[in-house]
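May I ask for a sample protein chain and its fold as tokens?
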Amino acid sequence: MAKALLGHLGGPDPVVVAELARLRRRTRDLEDEVERLRAANEALTALVAEDQLLSLASDREPALT
């Protein structure tokens, strides 16, 4: 009966199905970006904790004036 009703109503709207797929891809891409940024943040935090980031900044040559 459900198949008959779904067929009678025309089934899922292709525009809605395409939009849902696009939104799912975008969500997956954003979740991957968050994970990448989180890993970069943890790496920088570890450098700051070890004072390596500060020592790297002081090793650079002074800017020319």
User: Anything to note?
Assistant: DSSP finds three helices and no strands in the chain.
